[in-house]
Specification:
The structure is a single chain. This protein is mostly helical. The chain has a two-stranded antiparallel ribbon. Helix 2 crosses helix 4. The radius of gyration is 26 Å and the shape is elongated.
């Protein structure tokens, strides 16, 4: 806090050993390069899974000021999953976030998120646990052997 009233102005000795308190940023370029290489290593390690984590829905922000803006939500509603033909448990296993509390208040957002789910499902490659016995819903062998485009 600043000193109050009509008192003497302090003769502050702030120049003592000032080099100790200076924060430099000479390692900015090196840190940037390190972050980039770590991101690439993580992408290679979890490939072909998405780097960004679970697939999230597109939702509108809340207040009057921000409701024209869209952002990533917590998870898809059960109605959106049902319209896309995905089971709740299956959604969690294939990298789709689910939020059972969210409600669809407009048909437009429901359709947009269903379209998002269908597009994700069309690009999805599910590796069979046993290559000799693929189950229903698993990708066929030539599809999952191809590199992603």
């Amino acid at each position: 806090m600043a000193p109050k009233h009509n008192n003497m102005v302090f003769d502050s000795h702030f120049h003592k050993d000032w080099q100790r308190y200076v924060k430099t940023w000479f390692n900015q370029a090196g840190k940037k390069k390190r972050r980039r290489t770590l991101r690439l290593e993580k992408a290679k390690a979890i490939a072909p899974r998405p780097v960004a984590g679970l697939l999230r829905p597109v939702v509108h922000c809340q207040t009057i000021r921000y409701n024209a803006r869209v952002r990533a939500g917590r998870g898809f509603t059960l109605d959106e999953l049902k319209a896309a033909g995905i089971n709740k448990k299956q959604a969690l296993s294939i990298g789709i976030a689910v939020d059972h509390r969210r409600k669809n208040r407009s048909q437009e957002s429901l359709q947009a998120n269903v379209l998002r789910l269908k597009e994700y499902k069309s690009r999805l490659i599910i590796f069979p646990r046993k290559a000799s016995k693929p189950k229903k819903g698993d990708s066929t062998q030539p599809r999952w052997m191809l590199p992603p485009n």
